[in-house]
C-alpha cells in the first residue's frame, strides 16, 4: 500500500505518515470528502422545491428564466472543472479546496437573502444568477479535486472509493429537499441557507488538517497536450453522453413542483417524491461495480442513457399510460438507475481513452487522473445546465394558458424533447465512443495496481477498474510535453 500510494502520488508522503493513516480506525480524508460531498450536493438540490414558487409567485419570474438561473450553477461548474482538471496540481489541490469552501459558504448565505429582494425583480434575478454561477464554480473545485485525490490516497481501492463518494453525493441530492423542508418549517426560508453556509465555513478546519500539504514543485512536472484531447472524438462522445444523461435528470428542476400542483400535490410532498429518484440511484450505484466485472463499461454507459430516455417517457407520460401522478413515481427510478449506470464507469472510461491517446505513458498517471476527474465533472455539469434550460424553454413554448391541462401538456412536450435527444445521443455514442470495437488489450502490470499477474489473468476481459486503469489500446501517438 505504501509503495503503491507513493508511486501514484505527486506528494511527498512518507511511509510513516501512510502507516498512521492505515493504522487509524477512521479514514479522516475519506470522512472529510464524504461529509462535504453530501452537503455540497444538498445545497444544490435544496432549492428545487422552494425556489421556483418564490421566484414565480413573489418575484414574478418566468419559468424559462428560472431554468436559466438553475442552469448557471452547472455552467460555472463546467468551465471551472475544465480549468481544475488541467491546473489543480500546479495551483495546489488543498489550497483550491479551501478557496472553494470559502466561496461556497458566502454564496449559499447570499442565496438566503433573496427573500428580501422579491419586490425588485431585476435585483432578484441578478443576485440569483451570480450566486448560482459562483456556487457551481466553487462546488466544481471541491468535487473535481476530491475525485482526483482517490488514485493518490487510495490506489488499491479506486472503484470502491468512487462508489462511496457517489453514494454520499446521491444522499446529499436526496436529503437536500428534506433538510430544506425541516429548516423551513422550523425557522423559515432563510435559515436553510444560513445553516448550510455555516457548515461549509466550519468545514475549512478539517479540510486544512486532514489533507496532504500541497507540493509547490508540481509546476515542473509533465502536463498533457490539450490539443490531442480536444481533437479526440471518443472524449467528446463520452462527454456528450454524460451531458445528456444529466440533462435528462435535471430538466424537471424548474417545472417539477409546478407540474405536480396540477395533481393537487403540495410542494413538500413533491420534494419527497423527488427523493425516490435518488433512492434508486443509491441502491444501483452499489450494484454497478459487480456488473463492471463482466460487462464492458461502454455498453453499461449506453444502456444507462437508453434507460434514462425510457424514464423521461414514463413521467411524461406516454399516451399509452394514464396521466396520473403515480406515473411520475414509476418513471423517476428509471432515471436514478440510469444515472448510476453512467456515473460510475465514466471516470475509468475517460482514463482508458486518455491512456490510448498518450500511449500508456506511465509518467502521466497523475495528470490523466486529474483530467479524467475534471472532464467528468465538467460535462456532467454542462448537462445540468442544458436540462433546466431546455425544460423551461419547451415548457413556456407550449404553455397556452394556466389551466391544469395546458400545464400538463407543456410538461409532456418537455419530457418528449429530452427523451428524443437522449435516444439520438445513445446512437451517436455507439459509433463515436467505439462501443462496437474489440475489447482493450491488457497490459501486464499487476505489480503496479496491487494485484498479482495470476489475478490479472483471472479477470481477463473484465472491466475491473483496478485492472484497467492504466491499460491501453493499440499504440497511438507519442507523448508531447507541451501543453
Automatic annotation (TrEMBL):
Residues passing through the membrane, by range: 30-51, 63-84, 96-117, 137-155, 167-186, 192-211, 235-257, 269-288, 300-320, 326-347, 368-395, 415-437
One Pfam family it belongs to: MFS_1
InterPro entries, per the entry: MFS, MFS_dom, MFS_Vesicular_Transporter
Keyword annotations of the record: Membrane, Transmembrane, Transmembrane helix, Transport
Source organism superkingdom: Eukaryota
Membrane topology: Multi-pass membrane protein
Subcellular localization, as worded in the UniProt entry: Membrane
Tagged with keyword Transmembrane helix: yes
Domain Major facilitator superfamily (MFS) profile: 29-437
Residue runs in coiled coils: none
GO CC, one annotated term: membrane
Gene Ontology molecular function terms on file: transmembrane transporter activity
Protein name, per record: Major facilitator superfamily (MFS) profile domain-containing protein
Taxonomic source organism: Paramecium primaurelia
